[in-house]
Amino acid sequence: MAVSVAAAAGRLRRAIRRTPQWRGPSRRALSSEAPPTQAAAVRDAFLSFFRDRHGHRLVPSASVRPRGDPSLLFVNAGMNQFKPIFLGTVDPRSEMAGFRRVANSQKCVRAGGRHSDLEDVGRDLSHHTFFEMLGNWAFRGVYFKEEACSMAWELLTQVYGIPEDRLWVSYFGGDPKAGLGPDLESRDIWLKLGVPASRMLSFGPQENFWEMGDTGPCGPCTEIHYDLAGGVGAPQLVELWNLVFMQHNSPPGPSPIPLCHLSVCLIPVILWGASPCIPFLAREKDGSLQPLPQRHVDTGMGLERLLAVLQGRRSTYDTDLFSPLLNAIHQGCGAPPYSGRVGAADEGHTDTAYRVVADHIRTLSICIADGVSPGMSGAPGCWGLIWALNPSRLVLRRLLRRAVRFSTELLRAPPGFLGSLVPVVVETLGGAYPELQRNSAQIASLVSEDEAAFLASLQQGRRIIERTVRRLGPSDVFPAEVAWSLSLSGNLGLPLDLVKLMLEEKGVQLDSAGLERLAQEEAQHRAQQAEPVQEQGLRLDVHALGALQRQGVPPTDDSPKYNYSLRPSGGYEFGTCEAQVLQLYTEDGTAVASVGEGQRCGLLLDKTNFYAEQGGQASDRGYLVRVGLQDVLFPVARAQVCGGFILHEVAAPECLKVGDQVQLHVDEAWRLSCMEKHTAVHLLNWALRQALGPGTEQRGSHLNPEWLRFDVATQAPLTPEQLRAVEGTVQKAVGQDEAVYMEEVALARTAHVPGLRSLDEVYPDPVRVVSVGVPVAQALNPASQAALQTSVELCCGTHLLRTGAIGDLVIIGERQLAKGTTRLLAITGEQAQQAREVGQSLAQEVEAAAARLSQGSRDVVEAQRLSKEMGRLIDAVDTAVMPQWQRRELQATLKALRRRANTAVRKLEMGQAAQKTQELLQQHSEGPLIVDTVYAESLSVLVKVVRQLCKQAPSTSVLLLSPQPLGQVLCACQVAQSATPAFTAEAWALAVCSHMGGKAWGSRVVAQGTGSTADLDAALSTARAYALNKL
Fold this sequence. Notes:
GO molecular function: alanine-tRNA ligase activity; aminoacyl-tRNA deacylase activity; ATP binding; peptide lactyltransferase (ATP-dependent) activity; tRNA binding; zinc ion binding
Protein name: Alanine--tRNA ligase
CATH superfamily of the domain at 39-249 and 294-311: Bira Bifunctional Protein, Domain 2
Subunit structure: Monomer. Interacts with ANKRD16; the interaction is direct.
Mean pLDDT: 85
Subcellular location: Mitochondrion
Distance between the termini: 77 Å
Catalytic activity: tRNA(Ala) + L-alanine + ATP = L-alanyl-tRNA(Ala) + AMP + diphosphate
Low-confidence stretches: 15-36, 250-280, 377-389
């Protein structure tokens, strides 16, 4: 809890007075009881100021994991959790609906997606992937610009004690193209607060106009900057506080331009942003700006950079938020002390490594505490749906692996070092974010486990890079194929940006064009997997198989594919397999004794641990190495069964020949995800029988690491209730974490077992039986009836050893293939959980929209906004990755809600049109022509007014103009039947709208259009003149 503002301010000043200058690492113990840090004092002073002096409600930070918001990779701004208020979609019955004055310190992560600082971290002294955003908000106009600006000024100058002469301000200078004038109100407020005009700057929309997205709430902003130069020479301005006044609804706008192009040096460092309260605007899809019905204030200030200003530092890494970490890194490594160097001055990139490790361990700790853990080891390169659903895990894995590389290679850290830094993060941030303290042991364990798993890959990757570089000529680029095989999209799981960085340090350029080509090929392969077809890869034809049989080559022993086990920690351990090359084939199927560098070939071994595609399960992928030459990877794209032989499709970076001894490594993450999906298929099959009856038959299935597809015979489409029941049955089995038993038995033993599931196909003898929760021997006992109570199937696939690793299963798609056959699409694990969160979020939005609709609309604009909201929700529900049962329910609800909303719009528009019609008829005597202006809230209302006028005065031709905010003018007209064909409505509207620089459309009788003009009288004169000439 924040202390009183007076106490916090006093403690803050005392803490600032005792701050020593940064002179290098201290010898303080890594974890000890210590007085509150300056950061804590600054944070407390902010929260106390807004709570005690200005009556704000303190709300906790939202999780950095966005709940049900697929548009965000991580929460990256303080306003994210309040988006429903800004968008007008907040449930009127929710706690948030009552928010008026709010303040908090929000955890923010910018590491991937549209707003990412990852590539810059370490290279300079200010960028971070995790930062704290101090913010205050005022919703629904509870206070406006004057209060927001004065609060900011009071806090900075009186509480934090920043000298007024070091502060500059900027404000919105207007945008003539959008019809927006300068924000003179903000300028005058700053002048009134004592800011001289000489320290005020005016900028256009690129610098001082804030937009939440391509469409939606937006508005001008005013910013407070701090002068680092202190009046010595040219000002060097750091942005401290950005005050945004949302008053419009917005189109895609240009990216903000760094302020460094100005005559004063404006360093683009955001410390505090606040949204001044001009009436909000919203940008519509057509790019127009419309006023919002309610105004809000949205502020945000980066704590790390505020500290740098208050403590007199040029770098955020020199503040007390980072110095304990930098000290701990120095104590735990063999590197020299941190000295704050950048660029060429940072010899050996030591200080860069300090900053990367300190930043990344903070981000990892915060994210893991909030339930986002690093992705599994292995290669997610073609996991399109997994990336689309849960890319945050993969971003965290990238962060952790970058930190491992920088700490071990540049700082000479010992194994397990990163996990030892977690207590330091908890000590510095745990007081503000108690979830760090609650989860500290889990955080350290996860970090250490992934660090250990990656170290071997990093060392092998380094050797491969060094060996490849030695073979390059002076002007050669590093081969894209080698980089790809090293990366997260290949085999070893090194982040591609890390591979690039390692090459940069050696002065070697990467083949970027080749990488782009490989990425495109991967995308094409991913698209093909959406509806799997038989791939035309390398195969053994009847002649090749006959030759092998004549040579007495035995079928491939693929039993090692089942050699995996559960570790005590719950992870899976997959064994490697050593084998001998028996035969090589070129791409046209010719048997050869060897293949050379760069060739794609088929590889036949005496044994393999690769799963070859069969039974609906996708083939394994991975790599092999020659025994004794571990630094050359031979990527294996897939394996397939050909007449009892397993053919591996391999890309050979070097020579490979018959007789070579090789070691095979499956892609563990790929295999494990396939195992999850395959066991889930069995549970889904059993759950469908439970829901639809024992006669339900499987018609086929296919699975890969991204999703599973299941075809089932049905007499009618599944109802939402049946889909939900099926998911519930699977969830129950997953929650019980039942053992999965697998055993080979004589085929005859399976012939008469009640409930045993098998497909109409030929099975080998002996056959493999997979039983969930019941040992195979018991399941096959006809007297036990066990196979009727659980999933028991004949299957040669690879499966989990316990069901709990599935995590969850969500059916996200359903369609009829043919009469009597339904195809289901499902996902598992964290992807399924996120799909549920998306579904829950959309359900809450629909419920909130229904509540607002039930309250009724007082005017046309509000009713139209509700109608548009229904349309947006319908599109969102139709396309979202969410439970199918929930999609069907929400679609039915929204269909009814949209009918109600549209009916309400029509009634209000007709009522408004009738009122304006009577007013105009009273103003105009009977005659052949009515040309006038009238305010209408939409073009639809204006057309209705014109139609009603012509209905009540059939011999009169009518043209009406309606001026709108921001200079736009609406136009609608109708021509009396007696005046056509010489006089047409379309030509009339076109003449008037062209005069206003706009456009028109319609028919000979009725037309409409839009334009923009400040001289309505001239437009009306044009309309009258054209009509009188035709009449």
